[in-house]
Each structure stands twice: as C-alpha cells, then as structure tokens.
C-alpha cells in the first residue's frame, strides 16, 4: 500500500516541486541563522540536500526535473526583472559607465583566459577546455558557446553552477579582506565572474551590488561569446 | 502581481523573438532585460501606465529577493556528472576556484582604479 503511494508520488511533478520549495526554505532559514557565514550558501545547501535525496531514493534527474521545471522556467522572467532596477537607478548606472566598460573587457578576458590557462596546465583534452572556457557566463549562453566549440554542454552546465557557487561563497570575505566598500564595484565583479548565482548573492547583501551584478552578467554574456574565439 | 508577471513575460517573449532573428547570439531574456529597462524609461512619465509600472516594480522586487531558488533545479543536474566528479573533481574545483578568485580581483580593481582616475569618488 505505502509502496504503491511512493511509486505514485515519485513520478508526479508535485512531489519534486514541493521538495525543492521546502528544502530551499529550510536552507535559507539555516543560512539566516548565521548571516556572516558565506559557506552556508542556500543554493549550495539546497543542491546538496536534493541531490542526496535523489541518489538515496534512486530517482533520476529527468523525473526530478519534471517537477522542478516550474521553478526553472522562472529564470527567464527573473532575468527580465533585472532590467527594472536598471530603470529605477539609471543615473547611478550612467555615472559608472566608464569604470563598468573597462572592468567588463578586462574581467571577461581574465575569466576566459585564466580558465583556459589552468585547464591546459592540468592537461585536460581540448573538448574539456572548450567546455570550461565560458563558465563565468549564464548557463544558457555558456552551453551555446560550449557546443559551438565542440565542447560538452552538459559538462559546461555543471561547471557553470560550480563557478556561480564558488563566487557567491568567496566574494564577501574577499572584498572585505581587500577593504573594498564600493558596492557597485563589488557587485559588478561578482556578476561578471559568477553570473546569476553571484547576482542572487549580491542581492542578498546589498541592492546596489545586486543591480551592478545583474548588469555585469548581461554584458558578460554578450562579450564572452565573442572573446572565446581569441583563446580557442 | 498578475500585471507585473505579464509585463515580465511579454518582454521575455519580445527578447526571444529578437534572439531568434539574431541567431541566438544574445540570449532572449538578456535582450528582454535591456528592452524592459528602455521601455520603462521611455514611458516613465505616461500617467495611464503608472499602475502597471508600479506593479512591474513590485513584482520584480519579489522575484529578485528570491532569485537563488531559481538556480536549484539546474544545479541538481550535477548528479548526472558524478563519474566526472569522481575522476577529475579536484582538478575541476581547482580551476574554478583559481579562475574565480583571479577574475573577481582583477574586475573589482579595474572598476575601482578607473573610477578613481575619472574622478568618480570626488564626492565621497
């Protein structure tokens, strides 16, 4: 009887949609207990817990995604929503236009260049190097760039998420250690290096950081798809 | 709320259509983001659109405050690559950490130095 219920629920989208929401709410509550601790990143915690549940229960990713896709779909409108603070704080953005464009070009070249350099250093095959190169951009762009370079888009997606979480965890301690107080600069750097996951972190720290992070993410998506050809 | 989410989806749709004609060169939602900012700026003074503007602003605040959860479904996809993590996880992690730390440092300092040189901190 209970086995029948499990089979019924495990294949329905509702169970995995609810799991994702509940795990996320629990993860943000845990992260909120110690706001200064960047290691308690709610995105990383949620992914780890859900991945563990799926592995233990023997559920494959496609079955999970049937439920989780309703949340995944909102990435599109959420990206559009990044344009609204852009409109609200247009004068702040305009007054930072020159530093933004310089940081964009140098940062984008550094992101791709350093990745390709270390990937060669560790002796990865050319198709793996191509899969890693666009890792600082938002997943959709990174996967398109990767497949255009004969990389593996699925590997790219995994590394993009890893890069986002890494940036979200290290950005606050790093910027504090370097005594950087300008949240427009801090936000721009994390959006460029760590796309939307960095932007989610930036919004949880400071609204101005979030605004500049979103701009950096958008700009870098465009620029990376051009400059990967410089390195590969 | 409903007007707000509709406005966001309409701009995503416009962005996707534009992206199609640009051969996917720039992702649709990124084009939608730029178009939404431009459209709001151009129509900011139009009285009849004011309630729609306010709803769009309110909806985006809710969406952006909960941005993190939207990356969880894609992130869980990492379970499809457990063999790769077993084989070369440490090297991949090293590349990601090194490159991210270098990129963050370079980007933030270029931003700050250029802003300083162009007198951007004159009023601080």
From TrEMBL, chain A:
Signal peptide: none
Lineage start: Bacteria, Pseudomonadati, Pseudomonadota, Alphaproteobacteria, Hyphomicrobiales
Chief place of localization: membrane
Pfam families (UniProt xref): LrgB (PF04172)
Localization annotation: Membrane
Gene Ontology CC: membrane
Keywords recorded for this protein, A-Z: Membrane, Transmembrane, Transmembrane helix
Full protein name: LrgB family protein
Native organism: Shinella kummerowiae
InterPro entries in UniProt: CidB/LrgB (IPR007300)
Membrane topology: Multi-pass membrane protein
Transmembrane regions listed in the UniProt entry: 6-27, 39-59, 71-88, 100-122, 153-171, 183-203, 209-231
UniProtKB/TrEMBL annotation, chain B:
GO cellular component terms, A-Z: plasma membrane
Main location group: membrane
Entry keyword Transmembrane: yes
Protein's name in the database: CidA/LrgA family protein
Domain of life: Bacteria
Species the sequence originates in: Shinella kummerowiae
Topology in membrane: Multi-pass membrane protein
Keywords associated with the record: Cell membrane, Membrane, Transmembrane, Transmembrane helix
Keyword Transferase: no
Transmembrane stretches, start-end: 29-50, 62-80, 92-114
InterPro entries associated with the record: LrgA/CidA
Subcellular location: Cell membrane
